[in-house]
Description:
With 363 residues, the chain is of the alpha/beta class. The chain contains 14 helices and 12 strands. α6 crosses α14.
Amino acid sequence: xxxxxxxxxxxxxxxxxxxxxxxxxxxxxxxxxxxxxxxxxxxxxxxxxxxxxxxxxxxxxxxxxxxxxxxxxxxxxxxxxxxxxxxxxxxxxxxxxxxxxxxxxxxxxxxxxxxxxxxxxxxxxxxxxxxxxxxxxxxxxxxxxxxxxxxxxxxxxxxxxxxxxxxxxxxxxxxxxxxxxxxxxxxxxxxxxxxxxxxxxxxxxxxxxxxxxxxxxxxxxxxxxxxxxxxxxxxxxxxxxxxxxxxxxxxxxxxxxxxxxxxxxxxxxxxxxxxxxxxxxxxxxxxxxxxxxxxxxxxxxxxxxxxxxxxxxxxxxxxxxxxxxxxxxxxxxxxxxxxxxxxxxxxxxxxxxxxxxxxxxxx
Length: 363
């Protein structure tokens, strides 16, 4: 399973030829007379989409005295698997990137040491899912259906707004989604249907969606940059599906990396189709630099990092005082009522839901 919040913005930026930033760090030792050598390197293990601007990271390093070493480990699911396999002897000090679709698995495997990060009181209560503070909320984002504005304007059809709309005849053969067994947004869209229709209703919904011509592809890259007619990549590939499962942050990214940059986003978001993902970080059990790991967790929910994050990872801050950049406020949307499913419910049912979904939609 390819998990994000693997953020579509980072992948979209890559698809449009944008080079993402990378921070570097090295090992350093404090060998003051009379003191045992003390590592000043703190290692952050993450999925590949983690990013922070050099200046913001450097400010943390200067103020804290720690040098951050980043160890990127593939998608979130693969990265989490590595930490479970190395439980007690972790590859780093902090793990970033476990989201609410995998949270219970991480907690049940006991890979984190509880720590209540400084500033946690500024994190909005709805994101604080672990009362034992084994993980700290860092960002949120919404998996949503995106639509091609030009297509619907030309056809004089209103774009869909809700999950119910997608099974209506006027949207037949228009939607492409990712495989829930292999893709994070694909799984998120499945969970949106579970949240909306419940255990008894989601299967019937997908049967209707299949009858209405939904197309399923393996991953986000293929769906968004090849099949979707509204994206820059999809236009080049002559995609013919004007509806795609992506992220609420995708329209601002289309503006940011458009050549030339458009005055308005060419794509919109169907806000009644969304599932909210929340990403967390935690202090790894057995961390060699526990003090540095705690300082790094404090930094991840600081105002400086939270306000830097949207344009680096195309996600939303979770703290009350962090302001969104103008790109998000002008071209993005606020999803007031996303579908949610409790992490423990996801953990108990995820494999069976995906298996059932595959038999209904793919086979």
